[in-house]
């Protein structure tokens, strides 16, 4: 008889992207205070810009809010001006790291092979990776969304993830920061395809890996998205910058 692994708690992760000066720490403190008052069913993380990570981790120490980086270099140190190494994120208090976000794939030409290498580096450093995948509007309109995304899953997830804590985030590029959200049937179809791929890659463990949805998740659509089959949380950009909005999304999980 095989025992199935328990279903992990949903993960709601805020991705601040290139937003946030010192005063933004107040928003994070307000999120922590809100969760203190009303504990969440979900795990909660905030991934600020690197300049705020250390201060944010200190401000949130002892709270229910984890912190994470938005990227790491594939190497752990060396001559890579402007880049951040995974052990530096850990040193600054991070527990997680977002890898392969479409903005990094687009802005910095990151390939799935590079993302997979970064995942290995992150795991070695003790970070829990959130690995992002998602199709462009052109790919969706051409009918290739499922093939593109499942291909990204296969190529961005190295075998060393077996048995490790990680999440996959499905973020259709055309839904990021646009206010456009994928339809619930589209989300369900894509998450089911990602789940099937995860089971092929990781067996029983693949059946429990949280698959987050990202792309214009807001307080008014979070509940229905988070109720959709195989949605195990959310990666939230714009709406994570304001404590009240982020708390409302967390409460919907
Ligand atoms: P958005 O961003 O919520 O602002 O659309 C999501 C993301 O890119 O992680």
Description:
It contains ten helices and eight strands. The chain has 253 residues and is of the alpha/beta class. Strand 6 (167-170), helix 8 (184-206) and strand 7 (211-214) form a beta-alpha-beta unit. Bound molecules: 2-phosphoglycolic acid. 2-phosphoglycolic acid (PGA) binds at residues 15, 171, 176-177, 214-217, 235-239. 2-phosphoglycolic acid (PGA) binds next to strand 8.
Summarize the helices and strands and which ones pair or pack:
Elements: E1 11-15, H1 25-37, E2 43-47, H2 50-59, E3 65-69, H3 86-91, E4 96-99, H4 102-107, H5 112-125, E5 128-133, H6 137-141, H7 145-156, E6 167-170, H8 184-206, E7 211-214, H9 222-227, E8 233-236, H10 243-252
Parallel strand pairs: 1-2, 1-8, 2-3, 3-4, 4-5, 5-6, 6-7, 7-8
Helix pairs in contact: 1-10, 5-7, 7-8
The structure holds 2-phosphoglycolic acid.
């Amino acid at each position: 008889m095989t025992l199935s692994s328990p279903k992990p708690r949903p993960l709601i992760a805020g991705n601040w992207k290139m937003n946030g000066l010192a005063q933004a720490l107040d928003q994070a403190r307000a999120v922590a205070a809100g969760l203190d008052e009303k504990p969440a069913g979900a795990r909660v993380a905030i991934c600020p810009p690197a300049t705020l990570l250390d201060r944010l981790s200190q401000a949130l120490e002892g709270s229910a809010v984890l912190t994470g980086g938005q990227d790491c270099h594939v190497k752990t140190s060396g001559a890579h001006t402007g880049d951040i190494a995974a052990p530096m994120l850990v040193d600054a208090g991070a527990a997680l790291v977002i890898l392969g976000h479409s903005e990094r794939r687009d802005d910095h030409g990151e390939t799935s092979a590079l993302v997979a290498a970064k995942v290995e580096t992150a795991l070695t450093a003790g970070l829990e990776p959130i690995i992002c995948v998602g199709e462009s509007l052109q790919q969706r309109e051409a009918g290739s969304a499922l093939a593109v995304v499942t291909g990204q899953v296969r190529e961005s997830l190295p075998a060393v993830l077996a048995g490790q804590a990680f999440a996959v985030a499905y973020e259709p590029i055309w839904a990021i920061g646009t206010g456009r959200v994928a339809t619930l049937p589209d989300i369900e179809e894509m998450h089911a395809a990602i789940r099937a791929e995860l089971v092929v890659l990781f067996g029983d463990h693949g059946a429990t890996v949280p698959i987050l949805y990202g792309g214009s998740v807001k307080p008014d659509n979070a509940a229905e998205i988070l109720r959709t089959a195989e949605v195990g949380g959310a990666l939230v950009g714009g709406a994570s910058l304001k404590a009240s909005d982020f708390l409302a999304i967390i409460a919907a999980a």
